[in-house]
Amino acid sequence: MHKTVPIALFGFAVLIAAALFGLSPESSNEDTNATELINVNSLVEIPPSPSVDQFGFVVGEWEVTEDIIRRNESLYIILSRFNVSPQKIYQIQQEASGRVNFNRLIPGQSYRIYSKQDEPRAFVWHYSNTDYVTIRWDQDDVHVEENRLPIEHREERTAAIIETSLYDAVDDQNASQLLGYKLSEIFGWEVDFFSLQRGDHFKAVYDNRYANGRFIGLGDIKVAEFQHRGDVFRAYFFDNGERAGYFDKNGNSLQKKLLKAPFRYSQRISSGFTRNRFHPILRQNRPHYGTDYAAPTGTPVIAVGDGVIIEAQRRGGNGNIVQIRHNSTYTTAYLHLNGFASGIRRGVEVKQGDVIGYVGQTGLATGPHLCYRMYVNDRPVNSQRIDLPASESLETDYMSQFLGEVYRLDMLLDDVNLEQRQNLALQD
Ligand SMILES: [Zn+2]
Hints:
Shape: globular
Keywords: Hydrolase, Metal-binding, Metalloprotease, Protease, Zinc
Number of strands: 23
Number of domains: 4
CATH topology of the largest domain: Nuclear Transport Factor 2, Chain: A
GO biological process, one term: proteolysis
Mean pLDDT: 83
Distance between the termini: 22 Å
Protein name: LysM domain-containing protein
CATH class of the largest domain: Alpha Beta
Strand content: 25-35%
Bound molecules: zinc ion
Domain LysM: 65-113
Largest sheet: 8 strands, antiparallel
Oligomer: single chain
Low-confidence stretches: 1-47, 420-428
Structural class: alpha+beta
Helix content: 10-25%
InterPro entries: Cell_wall_metabolism_enzyme (IPR050570), Dup_hybrid_motif (IPR011055), LysM (IPR018392), M23ase_b-sheet_dom (IPR016047)
């Protein structure tokens, strides 16, 4: 459409000029060229740009059937139902082989069939929020294309006072539960998320990600505040290409080299570290050199820090055990696992947050739980009490750039009102 605008304006201007100079388009020979330019009929020949749907098909040209993949449905079954010939389906499979794996058709994924005059001519397999495969065919050819919908970021803000739990507070704001998880990750070293109190609060300015107008996930938290027992903490996201992460206003990293607990979500501690405790199975007093988390069987257990797996096997009363050596000082151990995550074996390097196994009750255990142990120079320490090493603070060279960000982000956050329900899209 906008192509026609300049031409129309130009034509209009020429008409005005003609009127001002008292010339009608036909009035003189010198104006022959001008009459051609301003001929309105020529404008009609410029077609308006057609509107296409999110997969690029011209709206109005196609009959569209949208459905979801059901149990035991294959590409063959679906296309046959739309009367695509077995020969054509075979040709499609040949063309797609090595590029698209139709064995990954999973119940619940959506697809579309595009037809013209009742004849199916294209299949769009929309297998994730953003990714899709388009197959078009005619009498002779088949074209297979892998595509991705553009992701749009919208800035949002959420604030809440905690009444019952962080989970409920986030839920009441209709925000993604990942927001609570990310907040507990960011503030995990300042705030003890196991002892949140009524009246604690958080504020956050962050991105939500959308594809085709649909919410597909949480993006980065840009700045957030957490108030716990009267102390207020702020975290600022900074990324200059060299260094990225969350920092306090002085440029100290909020991330630690080791997480406080080997879980993504808070889990209840059923038994703490003690030099002397009555062992329920051995029925005698024994020291407990770890922290037991009463988590359901199958709960993912994550590595608390980067390191190398030095043990991943079944060993007596420990059951399935993983040990990670983080550096020359710190080692952590994870006991009674139901099983190991794939690829976890001795000698493998892991990153902080990688899933290493799943909660179970193998070995000497009365119920599903994780026994988590930390060693400093091979001596057991209480992971709950120990002051763990922080990641490096921001380099001096980046400080002026960072302080500019802090100024900007503080203003954003100061704008977030705690009293009233928020979570408004700023754009759109
Ligand atoms: Zn234990």
